[in-house]
Amino acid sequence: MYEQISHSLLNEILNDIKPEIRNLRLHHFYTRLGANFYAIHSLFHLLYGDRDDFKQQMTHLVETLASRYAERDDELKQSDLDREKNHNWFLSQKWVGMALYCDRFSENLQGLNTKLPYLQELGINMLHIMPILDCPQDNSDGGYAVRNFRKVDTQYGTTDDVVKLASGLRKRDALLVLDIVVNHTSDEHEWAQRAKRGEKKYQDYYYVFDDRELPDIYEETMPEVFPTTAPGNFTWDEEMGKWVMTVFNNYQWDLNYHNPAVLIEMIDIILFWANKGADILRMDAVAFLWKKIGSVCQNEREAHLLLQLMKDCCQVTAPGVLFIAEAIVSPSEISKYFGEDAINAKECEIAYNATLMALLWDAVATRNAALLTQGLKNLPVKLERATWLNYVRCHDDIGLGFDDNDIRLAGYDPTSHRHFVIDYFTGKFPDSPARGLPFGANPKTGDARISGSLASLVGLESALENGDEAAIDAAIKTITLLHSVILSFGGIPLLYYGDAIGTLNSLEYLAEPTKVADNRWMNRSHFDWRKAELRQQPGTVEYQIFSALKKMIALRKETTAFADFDNRQFLTVDNPNLLVYSRTDPQNNRNRVLVISNFNVEPQSLAASILTTYGYFQLGVMKNLCANTQIAIENGALIIPALTTFWLTD
Ligand code: GLC
Ligand code: GLC
User: Fold this and answer.
1) Residue from 284, 347, 403, 406 carrying the catalytic annotation
2) How do the domains of the chain map onto residue ranges?
3) 3 state SS of 322
4) Whose CA is closest to atom 9 on ligand 1?
5) Is the pLDDT of residue 1 over 70?
6) What does pLDDT average to over the chain?
7) Which atom of ligand 1 is nearest to the CA of 92?
8) Which parts of the sequence belong to the Glycosyl hydrolase family 13 catalytic domain (predicted)?
9) pLDDT tens-digit profile of 386-437?
10) Handedness of CA 75, 78, 82, 83 (dihedral sign)
11) In Å, what is the CA distance from 102 to each residue of 107, 131, 375, 564, 607?
12) Ligand nearest to the CA of 394
């Protein structure tokens, strides 16, 4: 948009810009800056307009964007242009992701190159490498307590290895996802170190207080993230002689975005990694970006303004790079991270679908789809140019982030239902085959989350121990069923590295003093390559899971109706054990897939009359893509076997 004030400011900034920057080849940069400047200026003004150094800060921001643009290599600039032209490229059904730890999956970044054929065999073409930046050895929070944002931890390799990996992936037509830990730094980061030594400039990078007065006021409304291992939101720093805000662990200092210097530093870091070849950046813990007295300090409006600014700035320098919002918050809040009141995503193009994830686990525990269907129907409508990251498990705990009202509508009492689900997965519920542990149990609120690997949570571990063939079969079917939903739902499926071979809980962390208190490590095991070999041996558990997932991934990629163009419709059916939706190719309405998933351990039936009302089974049979078989209506009903999904086409 053209607007006089911002346009004349832009002219002034461009006149003031350092001559060494002005002399660079910045043709596309200027076009994009012109297009985004009104938004950047308005947002920056909303956040920092009352500061005396406002214009200086703006100039510094523009110089940062220009300098990083000048450094961006030609191949990446070409990819930016291609993606601008084909701007819906990431909505295609062709993408299938996996998240893994480079050291736990292979040895290091170089070693990872030799493991790419495994990923390719499964059909993975989007690789999220868990954080690899320099962290203190002991207090790392699995890579999320960064000491140096521009240095790869020496145990994983070098920045150059990242560049090589990115370019190798590009040749395979695969994408690289890297983390940007935007909310906090390690207390050993240079900024924190200088703050400790008393430098006011760097104390302003954090939320630092002389006494408990303000921290106590904040605490009145701030929830706790790690109540058992890191209670409270502030930590006393002996060296500095002050309190500092630490929402996560006490060694993770929250960055103070009330200070524009922090935002500009972080934008610079975002662009640094964009320039190393990352296609997508996973913005960690974005719900926490803005802190305000009297609020929960999550999902604040300003957190959204900051993300919009980061996006607009990235659009100017590296427009081909997408953002993933890691905001594990309530269903109504998550979709706001796409940006509101727009068609194109204004913040993050992709968001973790934590709602679907939690609902899937509810369906496993209840063995029905009542709450799953109810919750999904209320999933907020997302923007057109935005998509979900659909996942079953990740490196973190499972929070039961669904809506109380949906729980009631599904026929349960919210408090007792949540307790049931926690008890089910943590082995307290009689007859439950699950082997999880409670995480972050907070006696003050009664909340708890769940840790454990996918296979152990669905009962594979206990079934193997008991040598119970029927239970082993049910666990394998459940793993396949859960993946069939994330592969067909709409969005990018993100697998977790051990899940395709049925990796059980790992107990290694119990022997490591710095990890023992954090049972999320149960699900961060060293990938067992000998176990992975068994995927080639028919009859093994590994073979059954791996081959089922591999087949569904290949089918997904061929099925254009699975691309994400808001082309999903839920069918209202009379059997609560079933989740039923259709996916239609917007280019060709006749090209559609009916997805029916049975979460019950018994076969279930669905009245043919319902299906024919929606126009399915007109000729009495449909093809099930998953098994390549014809499925017929018999005695007026469709029978769906236990723990099975049908992908039906005409
Ligand atoms: C295709 C490519 C992807 C590229 C995009 C942009 O989907 O596979 O790598 O960035 O198109 O056009
Ligand atoms: C994110 C990460 C989690 C980490 C937290 C703090 O939620 O996924 O592992 O503990 O942020 O950085």
Assistant:
1) 284
2) 567-649
3) strand
4) 173
5) no
6) 96
7) 7
8) 99-556
9) 999 999 999 999 999 999 999 999 999 999 999 999 999 998 999 899 999 9
10) positive
11) 7, 9, 35, 29, 48
12) 2
